[in-house]
Every structure is written in structure tokens, then in C-alpha cells.
């Protein structure tokens, strides 16, 4: 069952015919199925972030199409895309992107408040995710009082509260030390195995990528190659 699919996806920055144009994504055909846990790796400037932004409907392709649960997103208007992003997509960033005037609990609640969910449901969801990711003891702390690893686990919780079909993470371990990176990748494993949610991680971090079941290598805006993990963790 395909969650996310692209067809001949192209993104050119600048005037397509101009001297200063850059082809950041160059005809990518990608299919991501339900329950997959994959990493996209590639050198700096190879188009990883641009591809992730196109997949998330944050940026528009120059040509080609992105299908989410079979629906072409180019046919959605702005409102439909916003609803889709809030409901079907969870986003996690390198910089965490939390609101530091709010507590951990409040940060996690935001997407559910926007969806006008009942209070009991919101409380239940926060408890469930905080327990899964080991952050129940910091729920009432302000985010500037918690560690980087705890901030990222808060961000992962926030990304999952509306039960998206896919979680997209851009360099999620980029600001974390090795121990916190391990914890975050273990959290993503739980997301895949216990919440049955698809996870796509864009990363430079070979150690982080080793947790994923499939790694796709991007070079010059195109898919260069991929590897699939055969057995237990780290057995490629
Ligand atoms: P990566 O995430 O792999 O480092 P990016 O997607 O950020 O790659 O960038 C791919 C290419 O597109 C690079 O050459 C980069 O300079 C260029 N690029 C990215 N964003 C823009 C932009 N907003 N305007 C112009 N060029 C861009
Ligand atoms: P990342 O570290 O995630 O690859 P970058 O540092 O490549 O991100 O890019 C950060 C921001 O700058 C992005 O919004 C990207 O679109 C923009 N950007 C990257 N390269 C260029 C460029 N050559 N011209 C204009 N904007 C760019």
C-alpha cells in the first residue's frame, strides 16, 4: 500500500533556462509503502532537503507529481493542502522548532488544539506518546529547561499527535550528541513498530541511517542507489 509516491519529480531553482538555475531534484521516482522505515542520504547540496519539502507539500515542484495515499497534491488548493499536512504528515526538524514560551505538554498539544479535539482525547494522547518516548517527567517543564534529546522527543510527540500516515524528519540527529541520537532513532523504531507509522529520515549521519530498514542514496538530485537491511539492526 503506497503512502507516498513521486513521478518524474523535478525542482529547478531560478529561471529554468537561465544561467543561474539549479536543478535540485532531477526526475525522482520514489514509492514509499505503509510501515516502511527509510533514510535518504547524500552529500551536501544533493537535493535531500528540497526533495523532503516537495514530499511534504511545503514546496511546489517545477514538474512531476507527488501522490499522497494515491491523491495528486498538485490538484489540492491551499486549504486542502494545509488540512492534509496537519492530518497526514508529521514533520521533525534538526532545530526542533518548539515554542519556548510553552511547556513540553503545551507544545505537544498545539496540533490537536488546531484540530479542535476533545480535551480527554488530547490528554490521553499526550500521556500515551510521553510514556512511549520516556518524557512523562518533563511534561510541565518549559522547553528551554530540558535537554536537546528531550526537545527532539517532544518534537516527535508533537508530530505524531494527529496520527499522520507518515513522519518526515530532516536531519533529526543533527543537533544531538551520540547518546541522544541513539535514543531518537530508537524512538523512530517504536513509531514504526508500535504505532505502525511510516518514517522517512533525511540524514548525513551514517549511524542514524543504520537504524533504518532501507537507505536511499541521492546524488545530484537523482536516486543513485539503495540498500535494504536483511536482518537484525545493522545487518546490511
Ligand atoms: P541538501 O539538503 O542535500 O544539502 P538542498 O536540497 O538543500 O540539498 O539543495 C540542493 C541544491 O539546490 C543545492 O545546489 C542548493 O544550493 C540549491 N538550493 C536549495 N534551496 C535553494 C533555494 N531556495 N534557491 C536556490 N537554490 C537552492
Ligand atoms: P540543509 O542544511 O537542511 O540542507 P540548507 O542549509 O541547504 O539546508 O538550506 C537552508 C535554507 O536555505 C533552505 O530553506 C534552502 O531552501 C535555502 N537555500 C539553500 N541553498 C540556497 C541557495 N543557493 N540560494 C538560496 N537559498 C538557498
Task: Put the structure in a nutshell.
Keywords: ATP-binding, Nucleotide-binding, Transport. With 236 residues, this protein is an alpha/beta fold.
Which helices and strands occur, and which strands form pairs?
Elements: E1 2-13, E2 22-33, E3 37-41, H1 48-55, E4 63-68, E5 71-72, H2 78-88, E6 89-92, H3 104-114, H4 119-133, H5 148-160, E7 166-170, H6 178-193, E8 198-202, H7 206-209, E9 214-219, E10 222-228
Helix pairs in contact: 3-5, 4-5, 5-6
Bound molecules: adenosine-5'-diphosphate (2 copies).
Description:
α5 packs parallel to α6. It contains 7 helices and 10 strands. The protein has a 6-stranded mixed β-sheet with strand order 6-7-8-3-9-10, with helices on both faces. Strands 2-1-4-5 form a 4-stranded antiparallel β-sheet, covered by helices on one side. With 236 residues, the chain is α/β, with parallel strands linked by helices. The longest helix has 16 residues, at 178-193. The protein binds adenosine-5'-diphosphate (2 copies).
